[in-house]
Write a structure and sequence with these properties.
Length: 218
C-alpha cells in the first residue's frame, strides 16, 4: 500500500535558538505585502517615524545640522537617542562618528556629505569650524510598525533587514497584526527565508543588519 508522505510545516518561533527573557525580543507589528509569510521570513520595515535633533550646549562649530526632509528615519532605525560626535576637526570640514541608541558605532559622517544608516542627515560647514567633541543628538520615536518580506530592490525601507516573522501569517488579502522578532535573540540561520534570487553577498549584508539589532545568526 502506498503511503502519502506527511510534510511538517513551519512552527511559530521554530527558528529561534534563544531569546531575551520576558519576550523582550518581540514586538507587535502590522504584516503586509500581499503574500503568505512563513515563520522565519526575514522582514524589512517601511519607512516612517519621527526624529528630532538638538545641538550639544557649548559646541564650537556653528555649522547646520539638517535631518533629511523625506526620510529621516530609515527602515532599520531604532527608538532612542543617536549621538553624532565630532572625532576629527578640519578647516571647512570635519568628521563625525555616529552611535546608535545602544552605543554601537554605525559609521562616520563627513561634513558636507549625507549620512544614511538608520537615520539620514547632513551636516553643513559654518563660519566657525567644528571642534573635536562637538555633538548633535538625534532622538527617534514613533517608528513605523509596517513590516513586509525583505525586498532587496525596494527604496521604501523594506530593502533593509529589520526583523523576522515569528509566525505563519497570510496577508494575501489584507494586512494583519502579528508578532515580529526585532532584537536580542539568537536564530538558526538555516531556517530563515530570503527573497527569491538573493545572492550570498546580499544575505550576508542582511544578516549583518540583523546582527546590528541584536539578532545573532547561528
Amino acid at each position: 500500500m502506498t503511503q502519502t508522505p506527511l510534510v511538517e510545516g513551519r512552527h511559530d518561533g521554530g527558528f529561534l535558538v534563544s531569546e531575551a527573557r520576558g519576550h523582550r525580543a518581540r514586538d507587535r507589528g502590522t504584516l503586509s505585502g500581499g503574500v503568505l509569510i512563513q515563520a522565519g521570513t526575514v522582514l524589512g520595515r517601511k519607512l516612517g517615524g519621527t526624529a528630532a535633533f538638538t545641538a550639544k550646549a557649548g559646541n564650537t562649530g556653528n555649522g547646520v545640522f539638517t535631518l533629511d526632509a523625506t526620510a529621516p528615519v530609515q527602515g532599520n532605525a531604532q527608538p532612542g537617542t543617536y549621538v553624532v560626535r565630532c572625532t576629527a576637526a578640519a578647516a571647512n570640514a570635519g568628521t563625525f562618528r555616529v552611535f546608535d541608541p545602544k552605543g554601537d558605532v554605525l559609521g562616520d559622517a563627513v561634513v558636507g556629505q549625507a549620512f544614511s544608516d538608520q537615520i539620514k542627515f547632513l551636516i553643513a560647514d559654518g563660519a566657525t569650524d567644528f571642534a573635536v567633541g562637538d555633538e548633535f543628538d538625534v532622538t527617534v520615536s514613533a517608528l513605523s510598525k509596517v513590516f513586509v518580506p525583505l525586498s532587496l530592490t525596494a527604496t521604501d525601507g523594506s530593502q533593509v533587514a529589520a526583523g523576522i516573522s515569528f509566525a505563519n501569517v497570510d496577508v494575501t488579502l489584507a494586512d494583519a497584526p502579528n508578532t515580529v522578532v526585532t532584537r536580542d535573540c539568537e536564530v538558526n540561520a538555516s531556517e530563515l527565508f530570503w527573497p527569491t534570487g538573493a545572492t550570498l553577498a546580499q544575505i550576508a549584508t542582511a544578516l549583518a543588519q540583523l546582527a546590528g539589532l541584536g539578532i545573532v545568526p547561528r
